[in-house]
């Protein structure tokens, strides 16, 4: 059946019609009224308690619809283990890290008001438009060279701490990053002022991002994390996977995001919200890796589904399929999970049909919930234009 996503208006979202969230939501809901200067940041597709989707024909919450018959709708699970989103970003999101399951349980037990659930929160982001993100620490040699090349950073962090990255690897990096995160406001201000002066007429990507972040979040320590973390420029279709303990931030652009159902975030900057520095520093993985190695590549599902590209993270909670059909393909088979799935159409038109469901005419913006009793095989027919959709489901591949 068709569903309507839940729209979020967080401050960092793209405004009005420029938001991908609006572009897609409008095509799925003719009654949707767009306000020009309002941010439209996220479209949530799933049964999450903080923003469940609605059944399009009745307006009922997807969460209550599912709860009526978990067995035939989502294969007997208590609720969907994942949440699918579209994000449209004008202003950077906080630099953050997510705990693994064990740590999430500990943090939730100790600080239930801050860490509201005991679950982990791995995420995958797939770019819909040119997309900019910070992901993981850079290789140690790169961080060492970056920090050494700016007197302002040497003064802030201390040359002996910076040298530790060369001599002590991950432990040295932890010392150096801890020094950054625990520096007092006045020292951080001085360092940022010096770098801002230096980067005024610099046309490197790093300098450009530094200026943007400094304008949006004046004197936030997060802008100095730029020298530690990989700056990743993604093309539409490129993806990154954010495992537990990996620092990251989404900076600009539109993407599909899929994650486990959790809200557990430990923040490190670019936010007015609470920064839990001690838990952050003890949780991070300081090994570092190359920017190119952070791109998360899909594989073709199998020989019978040559146009289905599977993004399969190393966790059970979710996987994402991208189905991209060449113009000469007129019918195609979609695989449904025994726990149900959610499909978002990005472009093209088609008819969708299967056992136990009515035939649906779907198009760009359509969001379809496939219950577990539908399928396992669902047909796309009468396919027109370049058809692309994303499908989120339990990772039972
Ligand atoms: Zn995250």
Automatic annotation (TrEMBL):
Pfam families: PMI_typeI_cat, PMI_typeI_hel
Domain Phosphomannose isomerase type I helical insertion: 171-229
Keyword entries, A-Z: Isomerase, Metal-binding, Zinc
Active site: 267
Residue ranges of every copy of the Phosphomannose isomerase type I catalytic domain listed in the record: 6-140
Molecular function in Gene Ontology: mannose-6-phosphate isomerase activity; zinc ion binding
One GO cellular component, as annotated: cytosol
Textual note on the cofactor: Binds 1 zinc ion per subunit.
PROSITE patterns linked to this entry: PMI_I_1 (PS00965)
Top-level division of the source organism's lineage: Eukaryota
InterPro entries attached to this UniProt entry: Man6P_Isoase-1, Mannose-6-P_Isomerase, Pmannose_isomerase-type1_CS, PMI_typeI_cat, PMI_typeI_hel, RmlC-like_jellyroll, RmlC_Cupin_sf
GO biological process: carbohydrate metabolic process; GDP-mannose biosynthetic process
Cofactor(s), by name: Zn(2+)
Catalysed reaction equations from the record: D-mannose 6-phosphate = D-fructose 6-phosphate
EC number(s) stated in the UniProt entry for this protein: 5.3.1.8
Binding site for Zn(2+): 96, 98, 123, 248
This protein's pathway: Nucleotide-sugar biosynthesis; GDP-alpha-D-mannose biosynthesis; alpha-D-mannose 1-phosphate from D-fructose 6-phosphate: step 1/2
Keyword Transmembrane among record annotations: no
Assigned protein family: Belongs to the mannose-6-phosphate isomerase type 1 family.
UniProt-recorded name of the protein: mannose-6-phosphate isomerase
The organism of origin for this protein: Chironomus riparius
């Amino acid at each position: 059946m068709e569903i309507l996503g839940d729209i979020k208006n967080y401050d960092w979202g793209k405004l009005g019609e420029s938001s991908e969230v609006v572009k897609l939501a409008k095509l799925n809901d003719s009654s949707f009224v767009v306000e020009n200067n309002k941010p439209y940041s996220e479209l949530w597709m799933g049964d999450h308690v903080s923003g469940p989707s609605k059944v399009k024909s009745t307006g009922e919450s997807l969460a209550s619809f599912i709860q009526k018959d978990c067995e035939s709708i989502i294969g007997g699970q208590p609720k969907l283990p994942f949440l699918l989103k579209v994000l449209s970003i004008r202003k950077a999101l906080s630099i953050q890290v997510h705990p693994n399951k064990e740590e999430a349980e500990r943090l939730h037990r100790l600080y239930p008001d801050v860490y509201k659930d005991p679950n982990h929160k791995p995420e995958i982001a797939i770019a819909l438009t040119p997309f900019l993100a910070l992901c993981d620490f850079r290789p140690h040699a790169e961080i060492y060279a970056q920090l050494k090349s700016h007197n302002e950073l040497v003064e802030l962090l201390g040359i002996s701490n910076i040298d530790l990255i060369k001599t002590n690897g991950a432990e040295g990096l932890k010392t150096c990053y801890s020094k950054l995160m625990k520096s007092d406001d006045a020292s951080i201000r001085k360092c940022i002022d010096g770098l801002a002066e230096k980067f005024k007429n610099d046309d490197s990507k790093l300098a450009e991002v530094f200026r943007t972040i400094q304008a949006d979040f004046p004197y936030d320590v997060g802008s100095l994390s730029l020298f530690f973390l990989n700056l990743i420029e993604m093309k539409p279709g490129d993806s990154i996977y954010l495992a537990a303990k990996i620092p990251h931030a989404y900076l600009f652009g539109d993407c599909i995001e899929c994650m486990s159902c959790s809200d557990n975030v430990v923040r490190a900057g670019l936010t007015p919200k609470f920064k839990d520095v001690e838990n952050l520093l003890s949780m991070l993985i300081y090994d570092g890796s190359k920017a190119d190695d952070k791109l998360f590549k899909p594989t073709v599902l199998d020989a019978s589904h040559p146009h289905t590209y599977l993004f399969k993270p190393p966790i059970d909670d979710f996987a994402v399929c991208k189905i991209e059909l060449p113009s000469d393909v007129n019918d195609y088979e979609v695989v449904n999970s025994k726990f149900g799935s959610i499909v978002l159409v990005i472009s093209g038109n088609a008819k969708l049909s299967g056992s136990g469901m009515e035939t649906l005419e779907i198009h760009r913006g359509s969001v379809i919930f496939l219950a577990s009793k539908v399928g396992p095989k669902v047909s796309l027919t009468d396919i027109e234009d370049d058809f692309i959709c994303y499908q989120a489901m339990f990772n039972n591949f």
